[in-house]
Every structure is written in structure tokens, then in C-alpha cells.
């Protein structure tokens, strides 16, 4: 398992890339309101997962918690990527 700092850094890098893609899609696409909604949802996801890293669930083993956290984050990222491609 990676330490919390590198996990937070990776989440921030991925969300920054998603934000850049959303901004590019809003500038070059015709559906600006849905691109802005994607930007806000990306920021919300980033904030949520960074907070969850700092405060793991009590009673759950750390390895299981961080594994499920990474899987949930990957699912959210793939969902946002699918939404960006449909813009």
C-alpha cells in the first residue's frame, strides 16, 4: 500500500487532468452547461476522496479500506471520462 501522501498526490493529479479535459470540452464543445456540471462533480469527487484518505473508517482494516477507496475512485473517474467523451 502506498502512503497517504502519494495517494493524495495521485488523486490530485488525476483530478487535475480531468478538470483540464472538462475545461477544454467546455471551450470547444457546444454543451457548456454540462461541462460545467462535470467540473463541479470532479471537484466534489476530489474533495470527498481526499477527506476519506485522512479519516479511514473505524473497525475496518486499513488495507481493505484503501483498496475499496481506490476501486471507488477508479469507478468515478471512468464515469467522468465517459461523460466527457459524450460532450
Descriptive report:
- The protein is mainly alpha-helical and 87 residues long.
- The protein has one domain.
- It is 83% helix and 0% strand.
- The protein is built from 3 helices and no strands.
- The chain starts with a helix and ends with a helix.
- The relative contact order is 0.17.
Please give the radius of gyration in angstroms: 14 Å
Poorly predicted spans: none
Percent of residues in helical segments? over 70%
Total beta strand runs:
0
**Strand pairing plus helix content: what structural class?**
mainly alpha
Number of continuous helical runs: 3
Largest sheet: none
Looking at the structure, what is the overall shape?
elongated
Topology as H/E string? HHH
Give the SSE map.
Layout: H1 4-28, H2 32-54, H3 62-85
Helix pairs in contact: 1-2, 1-3, 2-3
Name its key features.
mainly alpha, 0% strand, 87 residues, elongated, 83% helix
Short description:
With 87 residues, the protein is an all-alpha fold. It is 83% helix and 0% strand.
